[in-house]
Structure formats: C-alpha cells, structure tokens
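Slide 14.
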Amino acid sequence: MDENNPMSSPDQWEADVERRYPSAKRSTQANPEYRNYQAEVRPTVREFYRLNHQYQTFDFVKQKRTQFLPLQRQRMSVWEAMEFLNTLVDDSDPDTELSQIEHLLQAAEAIRADGHPRWFILVGLIHDLGKILCLFGEPQWAVVGDTFPVGCAYSSTIVYHEFFRMNADWGHAVYSTECGIYERHAGLENIMMSWGHDEYLYHVTKAYLPIEAQYMIRYHSFYPGHRENAYTHLFSEQDQQLFEWVRKFNPYDLYSKSDERPDVESLRPFYMDLIDEFFPSELAW
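Slide 15: predicted structure.
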C-alpha cells in the first residue's frame, strides 16, 4: 500500500460517502445512523481519513494555495481536462467500471433529464475535474475527502473526528477555538477551507460561472456544512441561501452513477456547445 495513497482509487472515498448518507436521494437531512457505518469501512479508507485529518493544517492549506492557485501548471480546454482526468485509472480497483468521463457525463445527463438550467448541467459535467491534482502528484488526502474550514476548531460532526488529535492545529491557542481566526458570520468567502479538488476547480472556473455554480463546485464535498449543518456560526446570510443549491446538487454528485455506459461520442456535440457557452477555448490550470 502506498503510504500517501492508501486507497486503490480516489473514487473509494466517494463510495464511502454514499454509504455514509444512504438516504441522500430522498432527503437533505442528515442521517442520524451514519456513524454506525464506521464498523464496515475498509482499512484503506480509514487510513485515508487519518492522513487527511492529520495533515490538513492551516499552514498546509496556505502552502498549497501558494503552490497551485497562480494557475500556472498548464493551459487546456475543459474537454482536454476531462480527457486528462480520464487517465486517472487503476485497473486493480474492482469498483471502477466506467471511465472518469463516463462518470461525469452520467451526472450531467441526470441533471439535464430533470430540466435544470444549463449552468447546472455544466457543473455536473465538470465538478470533479479538480481531481487532476492527483495527476500533478498530489496525495489522495490532499485531493479528495470531506472538506472543512481550517484556522478554527474542527467540528465533531466530521467523520473520524478523533484523528484530528494528531493534527498540529489541534491544541493551537487560536485555531482550536470555535471561530478561530475568523469573525462570527464572517461568510465562507472569508474562510480558508481544507485543500482539495473542490477548492482548486473553484479557482480555475470561478470567473466564468454564476455564483450558484461556484458554490456547488467549491462546497460539494463540504459535508459537515451542507449535510450536518455544522459551522453555521461562520455562515453569512448569502451562504445560507446559496447552500440550498449545494444541497440540490448533492444527490447528482453521489447517486447519478450506474452501470449503464453513456455514449460519449453521441453526447459530445451537446456538451462541447455547452462548454463553449461559458468558457474560453483554454483555461489556466
């Protein structure tokens, strides 16, 4: 087992979230039984949570923002980024039947079938493109996982909260307090979130999308916020309103996957037009 990448695929984390919230298809309310799921968690997934909770410190996040947010890795179109992500494959993972592009198209097609706005469909298509961080050499625990604010106390609602005791910020005089370095109701735009694919893709795409789409991308893995109602003491009124869109997106994020393969080539013209409607021919990554 790779010490920094204990799971055979980053998709194992999403499968674990789906088991944690089995009622999410029908309700946006937290499942009171979700903590019971820990007894069945794969050892590799448990190890992933340990690494994530131990190393996602305030200083680590600052360093990653400095490293990646100048967006100087490369320039490529959205579809090229999808094809790049498609190379993130592990044939040893029995849970991975479809390609990354096929998973993205499944989410987008489910949203499209329900008659949502075109920008909503686009979010379904691109929401996981930030996982290309894995292809830039980043460890799994710095790419996927439940996201949460850093620089303040870690909510007890975060799965495997006990692993935060190994985090360097756990006993910090300021970072361990409820609001930490932030003002109460400061608004999430003023809060530093743990580092991963959500935050990275938000910065790549934010200039081109409506604010509702920005929230879906930036906070779709923020399960403590949109599923457990944690950290509301940091939310602004705008956050409270826009999190309704994050909750609308959540079922498509987790539950649109199926064994039926989408026809990539027949769908491509529609999605190329959709991409061109919102994005320039190349984005900075």
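Speaker note: The chain has a mean pLDDT of 90.
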